[in-house]
């Protein structure tokens, strides 16, 4: 083989490898479906009196993936809801551990968990509706 031919073949191989890598990278970076669960608590900073303390709202969130679920089915939707509930408990527990002297007793009372679940409700409902609509569209084809 001539030297030029070898260089052309090596260049073509390099281009093919680069294209394959780019396609793989693009596929791995596609956004997977996720729901965001958020919890927050007011936190009072030290050094101020009870009536004039500055309050900072601290928020934690967790992403809940559901690419492995068919949320258009009852069992898939139930599993997504379980995942959201677990994420809500995790963020509220983390807030309680990190800010034990927060101004709210909501963290201990379970209100935090319910509010965190509610923060994701719109996304959960939209994901389920989209999956059900896609499933109905498949049945009509």
Radius of gyration: 25 Å
Largest sheet: 2 strands, antiparallel
How many helices in DSSP terms?
A: 4
- Average pLDDT, all residues: 75
Q: Based on CA inertia axes, which overall geometry fits?
A: elongated
Number of domains: 2
Cross-sheet strand order for the largest sheet: 1-2
- Helix/strand structural class: alpha+beta
- State the helicity in percent bands: 55-70%
Distance between the termini: 54 Å
**Low-confidence segments:** 10-29
Number of strand segments: 2
Beta-sheet strand percentage? 15-25%
- Oligomeric state as shown: single chain
The arrangement of helices and strands along the chain is HEEHHH
Which descriptors would you attach to this protein?
alpha+beta, single chain, elongated, 2 domains
Walk me through what this model shows.
With 141 residues, the protein is α+β, with helices and mostly antiparallel strands. It has two domains: 1-30; 32-140, no CATH class. The chain is 60% helix and 16% strand. The chain has helices at 3-28, 74-98, 106-109, 111-140, and strands at residues 34-44, 55-65. A two-stranded antiparallel ribbon has the order 1-2. Helix 2 runs antiparallel to helix 4. It is elongated, with a radius of gyration of 25 Å. The model is unreliable at 10-29 (pLDDT under 50).
Topology:
Layout: H1 3-28, E1 34-44, E2 55-65, H2 74-98, H3 106-109, H4 111-140
Antiparallel strand pairs: 1-2
Helix pairs in contact: 2-4
């Amino acid at each position: 083989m001539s030297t030029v031919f070898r260089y052309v073949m090596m260049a073509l191989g390099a281009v093919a490898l680069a294209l394959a890598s780019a396609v793989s990278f693009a596929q791995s970076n596609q956004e997977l479906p996720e729901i965001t669960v958020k919890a927050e608590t007011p936190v009072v900073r030290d050094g101020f009196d009870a009536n004039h303390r500055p309050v900072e709202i601290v928020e934690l969130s967790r992403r809940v993936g559901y690419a492995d679920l068919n949320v258009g089915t009852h069992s898939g939707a139930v599993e997504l809801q379980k995942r959201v509930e677990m994420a809500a408990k995790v963020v509220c527990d983390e807030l309680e551990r990190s800010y034990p002297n927060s101004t709210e007793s909501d963290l201990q009372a379970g209100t935090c968990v319910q509010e965190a679940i509610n923060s994701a409700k719109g996304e959960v409902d939209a994901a389920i509706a989209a999956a059900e609509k896609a499933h109905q569209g498949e049945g009509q084809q």
